[in-house]
Amino acid sequence: MNKDNHQGIWVYIEHTAGHVQRVGLELLHAGRELKAVTGEELTAVVIADQTGDLAEQIKSYGADRILAVDCPQCKEYSTDAYTQLLYDLICEYHPSTVLVGATENGRDFAPRVACRLKTGLTADCTALGIDEETGDVAWTRPAFGGNLMATILCSNTRPQIGTVRPGVFRAEQVGTAAQVVRLEKNLPEQSIRTRIKELVHREGTPFRIGEADVIVSGGRGMKGPENFPMLQELAELLGGVVGASRAAVDSGWIDSSHQVGQTGSTVRPRLYIACGISGAIQHLAGMSGSDQIVAINQDPDAPIFKVAHYGLVGNLFEIVPALIQEIKAMQA
Amino acid sequence: MKILVCVKQVPDTTEIKIDPVTNTLIRTGVPSIMNPFDAYAVEQALRLKEAAGGTVSVVSMGPPQAMSILTDALAMGADEAHLITDRRFGGSDTLATSYILSCAVRQLGPFDVILCGKQAIDGDTGQVGPEMAEHLGIAQVTYVSQLRPDGDRLEAVREHPDRQEILSVALPAVITVVKGEERPRFETIRGRLKANRQEIGILDREALPVEDEKIGLTGSPTKVKRTFTPERHAECVWVEGESAKDQAKALCQALSRAHVI
């Protein structure tokens, strides 16, 4: 394969209910970093039944161009339609690189696109770079539950495709507006073999811990669900949300949407306060990128202190209420 | 309904430790288990059979030791099991692995439903199921927590962090499952005794019509350039004090100085 025939960095933009998902905007930032090295054009790809408003939402996030594909069969996500449309676009425009958010839908159809193209796909990346030797994208991802990192290259086929975990890059507006290219496509109805019969939203407002600015998390040391309200109070005072370790979720103390870590969400808030979390590697994999990490734990040897910026050794049932009082006093 | 479950033998990653001297994975003495998500897939398959009739076959690709998880699946209640094993299959990435699996599915099938765990806990890619569906040219639903027969189709509940989709899917289809409410059943003593006597079919390179350039390292577009253990940064500033109140105060001052709060 002549790699020179494949040019351009693409970012697939996912959306739900008319709103662009943040991971797509984050990946435009990642795409700009790759572009800074390779000099290729950065393209955002958005597919929907009507992409007009979606294209507006992504315009200022740094893409040179937006491919906005309107397809009447895309009122809702389906593996079959989205695979076919992205595959067709790649065959028509032959980009060198495609980035897809590692969400349920991204990880559903990216493998089908890669397989149809007979090219390589790297899953759930947490860092991207350009390999100095080959000029290929160096995809870095965790394996073995976050115990090991691997850097993967796809050297002989194009495009090189990766799914990238939400929360790894920061979404950043850059001001300059992208050029919008509108495309209209149509697919045979019978080519779509799944049908959504019903959508059930989880109770309450959609909770996206990955987008929180401040997270106050509780682990096994919280001892029970009855102690989580004080974390909620602290989180609210700081304008944040409550997170949890897998131990707390598996014990049934809090809903799994709050789970931070390898099997939960990856987060990088401005402030992460870990209360009674020992710091299993699976948890650290999901939060060690936070700007400032505060750990409260009674065991000074707990691994959480290895990633913490501030460590408080002591009884969290005394420290957390004291913190609440202190912050209330500061805010008064 | 003819049902197939793909299962993988994995090291129990919760038991893996890092050697503090060499900074590498310590894998010796780490138990091998059936990938936990695959155990849920076996459970869904058995429930589907109970609801709609049919057979449950199980297939695994791996070294000869992987036979043990196939016996586990038989002990849970699967009807038959096959092991895909050949040194020449080694080094396959997800594209090559899913290709080999799809050839085995064609050989053993046809099947109405092929179930997989949503991902394996060692590689964590979640790509083999969808890529196998693509090789086979059939429909798929991923991240499924519940499954039931729905005429000549299946109804599946697909999980997102903020919502569930209730989908109808045409057969044949690949379904990848999450940990739902229906936990994998325990094997019975009778099941184990029966499983121990049951023969497991072997599919090697000679038994499968695979093209050599599509398997192993040759057939794998992705290559591992290097592996390393994750970096752990930073010096921790210890916030001390006579009492919890003093600690809280000192922390708030530090965070305030750093403009965090």
Integer average pLDDT of chain A:
93
How many E-type strands of chain A? 18
| Order of SSEs of chain B | EEEEEHEHEHEHEEEEHEEEH
* Overall pLDDT confidence of chain B: 92
Biggest β-sheet of chain B: count, sense, barrel? 9 strands, mixed
Strand order of the largest sheet of chain A: 7-11-6-1-4-5-12
Strand fraction of chain B: 25-35%
- Indicate the CATH class of the largest domain in chain A: Alpha Beta
| Number of E-type strands of chain B | 15
Do you know the CATH topology of the largest domain in chain A?
Rossmann fold
- Measured between the Cα atoms of the first and last residue of chain B, the distance is 60 Å
Determine the most extensive contact between two protein chains. Answer: A-B, 87 and 77 residues
Distance from N terminus to C terminus of chain A (CA atoms, Å) equals 66 Å
Instruction: From the 3D structure, determine the CATH topology of the largest domain in chain B.
Output: Rossmann fold
In percent terms, what proportion of residues of chain A is strand?
25-35%
Level of helix content of chain B?
Answer: 25-40%
Low-pLDDT windows of residues of chain A: none
Tell the overall outline of chain B: globular
Label the CATH architecture of the largest domain in chain A: 3-Layer(aba) Sandwich
Number of discrete helical segments of chain A: 8
Order of helices and strands of chain A: EEEHEHEHEHEEEEEEEEHEHEHEEH
